[in-house]
């Protein structure tokens, strides 16, 4: 809540504020958010206009969560810009979605919440080129870029592995997997 009494009701009057407030609960999405009670830095400009008070500024928060590719924890600063018109209680503006001053006080929490949550990346990553996890064993590919597994046997041909012994050498065949040709003696 910010008090606009000092601003007065003269259009064009403005006031700049810097505040650090505790972050409210639930400011984020499942994989990324702002921890409750952490610092929410606000650089705010309140400007008196005919209809009410125009609040604009920047909110700086520290996001915590996990990378959606490799599941490693991540922590990064995040800045969002916001702007909202708060109309006077006696204003004749009929817009139901318009924010209204409560006496001489304006509540920035809903605006900051909407702005931060809507600006969050839908799928946060620790870095743009994060290779993620191995789909077979779950190893983190950034730790071992040469990570590989043997080629998997196609399940449709897996039954043949019981018929053909593993130690059979296919080098005499022209094409691997083709039936053996009988040797022709001269």
From TrEMBL:
<dbReference type="Pfam" id="PF02620">
    <property type="entry name" value="YceD"/>
</dbReference>
<protein>
    <recommendedName>
        <fullName>DUF177 domain-containing protein</fullName>
    </recommendedName>
</protein>
<feature type="region of interest" description="Disordered">
    <location>
        <begin position="165"/>
        <end position="186"/>
    </location>
</feature>
<dbReference type="InterPro" id="IPR003772">
    <property type="entry name" value="YceD"/>
</dbReference>
